[in-house]
């Protein structure tokens, strides 16, 4: 439906467009014939004797004209071949009796203009009658011209199509004579028809104009094959690294890492807190993971590849579901941070690999990241507040938002570090990996909504959006199966699109991330503290 109602597709298969394509091809062929004849049979140009006064410039004019004709003929020629493609599959069938009938939609607007009264207010009755008569005559002339153009275009299309039909029929005959196996060809044709008959009948979904009934089958087959191609192409490009990461998520427990990467016990750097987007905590946690020493390069590379694949879908989801652009600055901050982490192993200007070498412990790394983030936040926020003192937190500068995220996550990890003495780099890296996996998994539960969101797009871009949705549907098949294994959330679809709504699912939030102890590697990777914190005001 999206493809057959596309304005480009409707115009491309119209008779006027086909006629213009035929004329453009005729002009290109005429120029090519003249050029070949001038070089192969120069004596045929008796009126061009002697040397031209323009000398070398004639060659430049010829080249320029050839380029212009060639470029100008590409698009019309494609439209002409597109029209032939839908007519030629039915070349062995008899032509329609209404082939030279002008459909109503060609002249409907002119007929309505003729029937409607004039909007001009004229006092004199004779003048009104004269104006109405003149208007009708002008509309009749336009109707005649429109009818003539359409009929002429249909004649040109008829000649083009049936010339191609005879050529294709002759080609088929030559192939049969060369192979001398007509029975096999007939059986193969019947086999292909039987294979096609097994496909679902989608003819009722094909949107077509009046007089295009014979094209429904061709359009249905062509678009079904195209859609199936994009679906299969997506299935062959499954994000394998992202799948390996999502298998580590706590999907059965409702993605606990979404709530636990940021503790409510961390004191805010400002009286207001900006909202979260899906991508910013993911890239911040990845930056912290990169700064950890004593982690194998294979695990680090696997994490980076997984996050890279996951962020492509996160951006797609946020682009579609953040229609109002309320999180645009926060998403920009995530993109800037990830660019530095992915390409240079840097968080803003901090070299993460250098920090991992210089620091003596994991706690020192987290403290340095927290201190640097706090310093950046204060410096950038001071400059910003002098310029825009009343701006909302979601409109803070990119560096302020990135620093605030790093500070809160680092402090959350430090609080857990102080309560555990057996914290080592490998287990912290594992905990960060699970948190990243949980955030990505919770975000990807919105994929179905994004895929269906393409139906609400404008008609002009709907065709592209549907093709893209089909491709994503194929690429995320295994991801959707993994996420469907457990009931994910009781949130309504609008709230599921926001990470802060996921975090507010439980009234009591845990205060420390899930870091497995050395004595419980095979069990759940997070043990919640048994302490109950109450804030009295």
From TrEMBL:
Keywords, sorted A to Z: Membrane, Transmembrane, Transmembrane helix
Keyword Transmembrane (UniProt): yes
Transmembrane segments: 56-82, 155-174
Protein name: Uncharacterized protein LOC105120015
Biological source species: Populus euphratica (Euphrates poplar)
Gene for this chain: LOC105120015
């Amino acid at each position: 439906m999206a493809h057959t109602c596309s304005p480009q597709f409707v115009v491309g298969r119209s008779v006027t467009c086909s006629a213009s394509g035929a004329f453009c091809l005729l002009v290109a062929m005429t120029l090519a014939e003249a050029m070949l004849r001038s070089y192969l049979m120069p004596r045929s140009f008796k009126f061009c004797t002697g040397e031209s006064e323009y000398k070398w410039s004639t060659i430049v004019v010829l080249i320029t004209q050839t380029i212009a004709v060639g470029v100008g003929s590409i698009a019309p020629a494609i439209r002409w071949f597109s029209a032939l493609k839908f007519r030629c599959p039915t070349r062995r069938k008899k032509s329609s009796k209404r082939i030279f009938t002008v459909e109503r939609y060609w002249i409907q607007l002119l007929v309505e203009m003729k029937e409607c009264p004039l909007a001009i207010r004229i006092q004199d009755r004779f003048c009104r009658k004269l104006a109405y008569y003149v208007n009708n005559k002008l509309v009749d002339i336009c109707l005649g011209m429109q009818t003539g153009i359409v009929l002429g275009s249909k004649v040109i299309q008829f000649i083009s199509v049936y010339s191609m039909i005879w050529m294709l029929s002759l080609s088929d005959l030559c192939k049969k004579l060369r192979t001398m196996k007509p029975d096999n060809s007939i059986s193969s044709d019947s086999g292909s028809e039987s294979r096609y008959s097994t496909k679902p009948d989608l003819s009722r979904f094909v949107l077509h104009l009046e007089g295009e009934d014979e094209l429904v089958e061709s359009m249905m087959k062509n678009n079904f094959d195209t859609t199936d191609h994009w679906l299969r192409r997506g299935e062959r490009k499954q994000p394998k690294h992202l799948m390996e990461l999502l298998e580590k998520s706590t999907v059965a427990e409702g993605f606990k890492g979404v709530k636990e990467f940021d503790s409510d016990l961390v004191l805010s750097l400002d009286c207001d807190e900006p909202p979260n987007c899906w991508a910013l905590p993911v890239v911040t946690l990845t930056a912290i993971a990169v700064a950890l020493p004593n982690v194998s390069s294979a695990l680090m590379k696997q994490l980076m590849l997984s996050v890279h694949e996951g962020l492509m879908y996160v951006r797609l989801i946020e682009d579609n579901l953040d229609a109002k652009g309320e999180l645009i600055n926060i998403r920009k901050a995530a993109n800037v941070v990830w660019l530095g982490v992915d390409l240079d192993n840097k968080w803003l200007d901090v070299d993460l690999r250098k920090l991992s070498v210089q620091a003596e412990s994991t706690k020192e790394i987290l403290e340095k990241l927290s201190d640097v983030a706090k310093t950046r936040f204060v410096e950038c926020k001071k400059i910003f507040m002098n310029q825009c003192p009343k701006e909302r937190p979601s409109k803070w500068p990119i560096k302020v938002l990135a620093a605030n995220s790093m500070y809160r996550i680092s402090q959350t990890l430090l609080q857990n570090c102080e309560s555990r003495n057996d914290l080592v780099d490998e287990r912290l890296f594992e905990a960060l990996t699970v948190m990243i996996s949980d955030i990505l998994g919770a975000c990807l539960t919105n994929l179905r909504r994004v895929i269906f969101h393409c139906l609400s797009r404008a008609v002009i871009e709907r065709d592209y959006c549907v093709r893209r949705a089909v491709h994503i549907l194929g690429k995320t098949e295994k991801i959707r199966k993994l996420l469907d294994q457990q009931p994910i959330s009781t949130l309504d679809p609008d709230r599921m699109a926001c990470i802060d709504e996921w975090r507010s699912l439980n009234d009591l939030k845990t205060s420390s991330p899930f870091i497995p102890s050395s004595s419980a590697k095979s069990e759940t990777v997070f043990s919640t503290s048994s302490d109950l914190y109450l804030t009295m005001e």
